[in-house]
Request: fold
Amino acid sequence: MCNFLFMKSKECLNENKVRKIPLVVICSPTATGKTRLALDLALPCGGEIVNADSLQVYRYLDIGTAKPTSEERQAVTHHLIDVVDPDEDFNAAVFAEQARTIIEKIAHRQKPVFVVGGTGLYIRALLQGIIATPPVDENIRNHYRGIRDRLGKEHLFGLLRERDPEAAARINPHDAVRVIRALEVLEQSGQSIVTLQKRHAFADCPYDACKIGLQIERSELKERIALRTAQMMEAGLVEEVRGILSRGYDERLKPLQSLGYKQVIEFIRGKYDRDAMVERINRDTWQYSKRQLTWFSADKSIKWFAPDQSDAIRKTIEMFRRES
RNA sequence: GGGUCGGUAGCUCAGUCGGUAGAGCAUCGGACUGAAAAUCCGAGUGUCGGCAGUUCAAUUCUGCCCUGACCCA
Reply:
């Protein structure tokens, strides 16, 4: 089955992108076994794995992001893991750009590509593109953040309503993240984010993707999350966080405010005890997994399997390669 | 044994000068175009500790009981 993908990639290049590069995408909520499945699929066919997880891209955040181990990374080539420091900028557009470059190269090497991760927006940006705007300008963003903090969300939204009524009509006044984004796009590009979105419409699709999702019953997923949190504790997540902080990274950095890291920092700061920390990580991870499920469930092109249906998954991928 | 303050949603608590109740968190559902493990939106929650009394009407007033914390002995 891997030969077929191999052929496809070659054709794709020879015919100068007349055919789309085939991709296997493994996307599902956290703790469902994506990493394991990806290794099982990629190893026998010499495939390479492209990470699509927004936090595994950061160096030093290993235990809490459940990165593949160094053994696993030796067995199969992984891309877009450990590519930036915790204080460096990274986002969906940067991800998509880098992932596309990498996938191009893997295809050129004539290896099958497996995109694996739980960050829905990153996968969408990779497969369907994202609006083209100037890179984020931290000065501009901080300016609007300052307005939010000093004058409040209402005032911030008032600015958007004044300058870009169409965007204001589509964004919730309390959603300051999106209000700021709309304001900065307008300021940097001179265009409404709505105009750019309408023009773009997720139509930039250079790949032929076979999306595989791993589905686990709720009660079992809850158990798996609790088990994984316990394993992270045992593996030294608290020590990992202390190490990152002692490198001088500010605890307010985006990746350190993420699931797991945030709660460990609050524990270190004495906001609550170890049991409460574990409880919160479990609860917040569960909430996150539900948000992921909401996102992925809306994507009707995902084919869902139980983790033990590896034969069915292999067959599905084989069929995909034959058809594409 | 006496006194004081409590017992209201899964949790923490607000409230009803008598007309059967609410906020935050949790729970459930949803959105998501350069922060996405982020951010935001929507929904429901209940014998208002128990039993009696007064009243057209009691979660609200009164009595007794149960129960928790604290104080005195």
User: Anything to note?
Assistant: Residues 1-17 of chain A have pLDDT under 50 and may be disordered. The two ends of chain A are 12 Å apart (CA to CA). The first helix of chain A runs from residue 2 to 14.
